[in-house]
Task: inverse folding
């Protein structure tokens, strides 16, 4: 992209990047910023800059925020929260170039829209690219180490093609624990189990890594968003997919602190195997995300989830009569049954 080397343009990957960005905000007192990339890091960064008093624009070529975490309809609350906070969204737009006199004065989008970063005190502003990561493996380019499309090739015990050489974490390439196909999995919650497995095996155990399930979560203002497994969009590439949504409250509805919580469950219509889920709530969602991740890892079906034995308490759950996960599972099975009867 033209202008990425201009003054005021940053990437956001390492702690040093954060320090440079903080220094720029404090020293130059910029009032406008553009964040390119509406994934979890980009969204959190846009809110941080916005909360620091900058007019912040969030740009992504995809039509919704958090596209790798949730399907479009599950991003509605997050987008509303961003707009409510004052973040200006430019979705479905690609950053074409950054223009200025060797500094970030304007950002040009492929729609023709121009984001002017100058203000009464500064002739330029801040542009931050938060568009994902690639492993730094060029150092091994002229070695026998096998490098794949997504990183260093390893087996299910983290062994590379070289004796006594192992790789774990973001620099390692691995496959989905659901489809068996290569997939991105650059999450701390993937890197840590890989490292733990390797350490245990070095101590004499014989563990094997099952693949990426990519359970993850983020916070967007007062909204918590999480997802795991395959989204409906991803699942449709390989499965005949059926989905259902459920919406309850985080406590008994009569409690004053009750907040919204909704789930989308994704399953294979043929086998009823659980493939993925997404959760949005006014309270943290990692507990629900992790339950579904375990269900996917264990290859559970919708019937297993419908038979889920859950707890209930006025301050901590919905009425005993229903449960978010059970409601989704029952909803899909009812949908499949209705379709079968209709045919």
Result:
């Amino acid at each position: 992209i033209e202008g990425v080397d201009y003054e005021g343009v940053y990437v956001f990957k390492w702690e040093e990047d954060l320090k440079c960005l903080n220094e720029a905000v404090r020293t130059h007192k910029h009032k406008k910023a553009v964040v390119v990339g509406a994934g979890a890091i980009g969204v959190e960064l846009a809110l941080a800059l916005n909360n620091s008093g900058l007019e912040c624009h969030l740009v992504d070529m995809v039509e919704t925020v958090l596209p790798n975490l949730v399907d479009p309809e599950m991003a509605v609350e997050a987008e509303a929260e961003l707009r409510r906070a004052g973040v200006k969204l430019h979705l479905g737009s690609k950053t074409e170039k950054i223009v200025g006199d060797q500094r970030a004065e304007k950002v040009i989008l492929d729609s023709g829209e121009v984001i002017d970063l100058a203000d009464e005190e500064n002739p330029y502003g801040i542009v931050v690219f938060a568009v994902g990561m690639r492993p730094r493996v060029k150092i091994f380019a002229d070695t026998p180490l096998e490098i794949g499309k997504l990183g260093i090739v390893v087996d299910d015990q983290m062994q590379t093609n070289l004796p006594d050489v192992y790789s774990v974490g973001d620099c390692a390439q691995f496959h989905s624990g659901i489809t068996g196909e290569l997939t991105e999995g650059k999450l701390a919650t993937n890197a840590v189990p890989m490292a733990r497995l390797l350490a245990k095996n070095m101590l004499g155990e014989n563990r094997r890594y099952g693949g990426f399930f990519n359970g993850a979560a983020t916070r967007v203002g007062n909204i918590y968003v999480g997802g795991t497994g395959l989204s409906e969009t991803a699942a449709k590439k390989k499965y005949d997919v059926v989905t259902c949504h459920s919406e309850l409250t985080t406590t008994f509805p009569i409690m004053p602190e009750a907040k919204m919580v909704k789930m989308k469950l994704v399953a294979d219509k043929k086998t009823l195997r659980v493939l993925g889920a997404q959760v949005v709530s006014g309270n943290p969602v990692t507990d629900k995300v992790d339950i579904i991740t375990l269900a996917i890892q264990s290859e559970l079906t919708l019937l297993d989830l419908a038979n889920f034995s859950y707890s209930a308490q006025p301050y901590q759950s919905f009425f005993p009569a229903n449960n978010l996960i059970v409601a989704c599972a029952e909803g899909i099975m009812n949908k499949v049954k209705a379709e079968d009867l209709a045919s």
The helical segments are 15-28, 40-51, 76-85, 188-202, 232-235, 286-297, 302-306, 324-342.
